[in-house]
Amino acid sequence: MAVPALAFERVTCAFADRGGHGRYTAVKDTSFAIGAGEFVSLVGPTGCGKTTLLNVAAGLLAPSSGRVLVDGVALEDINTRAGYMFQSEALMPWRSALANVTAGLEFRGTPPVETRARASEWLARVGLTGFETRYPHQLSGGMRKRVALAQTLILDPEILLMDEPFSALDIQTRQLMENELLELWAADRKSVLFITHDLEEAISLSDRVIVLSAGPQTHPIGEFAIDLPRPRDVAEIRLSPRFVELHEAIWRVMKSEVLKSYAQSRK
Amino acid sequence: MRKAASESTLSRTRLWFYQALLVAALFAFWYLMTEPILFSEASARNTAFFFGRPLGVLKVVVEWFASGKIYPHLAITLWETLLAFAIGSVLGLAIGLWLALSPTASALAEPYITALNAMPRVILAPIFAVWFGLGVLSKVALGVTLVFFIVFFNVYQGVKEVSPVVLANARMLGASKHQLLRHIYLPSATSWVFSSLHTSVGMAFVGAVVGEYLGSAKGVGYLILQAEGVFDINTVIAGILVLTMFALLLDFAVTRIEARLLVWRPKVAETEQL
After folding, report:
1. Which among A16, A83, A165, B136 could bridge A152 via Cys, Cβ 3.0 to 4.6 Å?
2. B128 and B91 in a common domain
3. Is residue B34 part of a domain?
């Protein structure tokens, strides 16, 4: 079998409790892998440690035990092969849209002329030509997400980590962005680890959906291959009978966890 | 909404009118109390000894500007203000960044920073006069101690409040430690410095004038000190008026600079001008 692009090996993440005594184990003994060019979604109830897992994959957070392998090599520092799209605003507010997109290339020391040309090209690809000089606060939420997407993709990462990137958008914009993401992904097949609490989003985008248990001590409890044909339109595919079947099957596994998480939040 | 807007502009011109009226009334009252109109010649002169006479003050101001005698003094005060502001800001920025990014240094220095900030630093003026003489340097030193802490605390705060997501994003984009400092911490911190620009320029000005007042050979503070020595209240008040106007001009300039430097900052309910 080929070496997976990204693999979690018995990853456990424990944090010191806020009081100082005791520990909170967010993620426990989690192992799974993402093949090269595969689009995998992690779904689970809110607060189950999905973001923790993504931060571990990004190298922003060292696991308490276990390890992450990138192309078979253990991750020690920041994962330089990965691009990360954050859930909340991550653009530099003091940089214009164009300057935000150029940032990554600038950090790598690419000559400014080339940097600007490539950034303009990427802004055009995400449909933001003419907005180069705007600052993030002058853009709408959807536009900011597009800038963030261009900012990440311009570096051509092999692995794309996405943390509920579209959760703050309204449903129409969201479906547009999802379709755009699928198109960009289809063009050069990166390995994607996509986090969401929205099961429909997970099914319509992914090759595989992994269901996580409710926290604490989150671990995978189910795995489903999504055999829907590509290319897909996220709005249309939701109506296909196979989609409904898959949704039902996954929801059966997820439901008890969602209820558990809900019960915990009411304590 | 439209109606409310026009109403508020109307009340604004009215407000200006009343504000002007208030100043005029104040001057009229001052005039009546210090000229022999309501009171006897002797009692009016007595009041004028303590409070000066508006026409006398005006005469001094006009004469200062007509003869050009005031300009070298204003220039010195401005120069001291600018130097104090620049040096205090750079020091505050550098040390603020350093302490905010180094937990050990910050833990070590914290009680001393608090103590230095709590100290009434104007009291250092005589020491600075001994160290740096009666020239520009001692005033700049005093201004620096005042500006430094404002900038320092703002930078410290600014660095501590850098969004962790923006920071993580920059790291994922491949920023080295040095690049994080330059592209994330520094812009974030300078934005806080700019937002405290009014206070720090004001403090630099206070430092310059107080320093001059406590011992100098030039500057508007020196003019006031000289006049006070011979009980020339008109000149003292003229000096205060000139300083106030000057401070207002400085503040206006700062507002203009601020608007240019912080274009990226969201304003409340900003709409695009078409």
Report:
1. A83
2. yes
3. yes
Domain definitions of chain A by residue range: 1-81+160-168+195-267
pLDDT score, position B215: 84
The first and second tokens of residue A175, run together, are 């479906």
Together in a domain, B65 and B92: yes
> What is the spatial distance between Cα B264 and Cα B248, in angstroms, rounded to a whole number?
26
- Contact at 8 Å (CB) between A120 and A132? yes
What residues make up the domain containing B108? Answer: 53-261
Question: Nearest-CA residue of chain A relative to B170?
Answer: A104
Q: Kindly list the residues from chain A whose CB atom is less than 8 angstroms away from the CB atom of residue B184.
A: 92
CATH of domain A1-81+160-168+195-267: 3.40.50.300
What is the tally of structural domains in chain B? 2
CB–CB contact A107 B270 (8 Å): no
Asked if B191 lies within 8 A of A94 by C-beta distance, the reply is yes
The reported pTM is 0.78
Q: What is the pLDDT of residues B200-218, one digit of tens each?
A: 988 999 999 999 988 888 8
Among B175, B176, B187, select the one facing A94 at the smallest CB separation. Answer: B187
ipTM of the complex: 0.87
The minimal CB distance from A107 to the residues B168, B175, B264 is found for B175
